[in-house]
Amino acid sequence: MNKKEITDKELLEHINSIQKDEMDVFVMANGRIRGALFHGTTFVNQMRAQHKLGILETMVLGQGCLCGALLIPMMKGKSKIAWKYQVDGPAQGFSVESDSSGSVRGYLLTDNIPVDKPLENWDLTPFLGNGSMTFTTIRDGDKMPQTSTVEISNKNIALDLATYFEQSEQIRTAFQTSIQMDKKGNVIGAGGLFLQVMPSTGGTKKVGSQLNSSSDWQDDDELLSKVEEACKKIPSIGKWFSEGKSIEDLVNTLFSELKPAIPVKRNIEYFCPCSQKQFLDYIRHLPADQVLDLKKNGPDPLEILCHNCGSVYHIPTSDI
Ligand SMILES: [Zn+2]
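A: This is the predicted complex of the input protein with zinc ion.
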């Protein structure tokens, strides 16, 4: 990836004055609830710089990429998740890829989301729509990737993702993302949270196993109401981080009753592993007649755009 600079001086000063990006993975209520809180102000700004996104586009892809970051602590072993979100509204959707090593990349299906009237707020509902969501998981060592698709209709990216986990893995899950902008439209704070209530029976049930009855939840009424109460008090996460406040303080403030412990801290960044060499290798493996045609007829140099990170590579045909 050709890492693009965040050029706005005032924004840079602000980013340097607040806490650094970080993800804290936590457990609470004796391990019954797990979650992660991600501070991703630099992360969203890097994403925006890579793709030179407008305000609305930053809100949509930013939410997708923040959710993509929150998938990382759920991943088992070395793996990748490719998440395609497609809707019939003006935003069309996005593709986001998360890597268990801690990187996320993604792009919008349309670069410019059409807006037909002035926006009154940051409600994205009018720009989303009904559609489908496809998850492809590629685990190291697996011969074939695993793919599953669900219908979506919430017109809300975080809610659609939570619905997927409830349907496909039978785990109560909540996602929340938040992007705070200043008057100039700069992203001054961004972050996200996920919470999962693990099944109680036996205590050994694996993620993804079938819950046999709804009684699991009834027994958990007290626990769930405590979680719900805590969730009602969640401030705007983006605003929290924009004010320089820390992840630990937010976790401990919100969930003190559930006795959270933070065993893992992770670095997550917006990053794409693409390179000039990778594209060159790809071109060299095209069918021989196509390679010959490129060498002979150009254009020279070839200009290649990586959709995932907006990097542009110029490859002289003499290198092919
Ligand atoms: Zn790339």
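The radius of gyration is 21 Å. Residues 202-218 have pLDDT under 50 and may be disordered.
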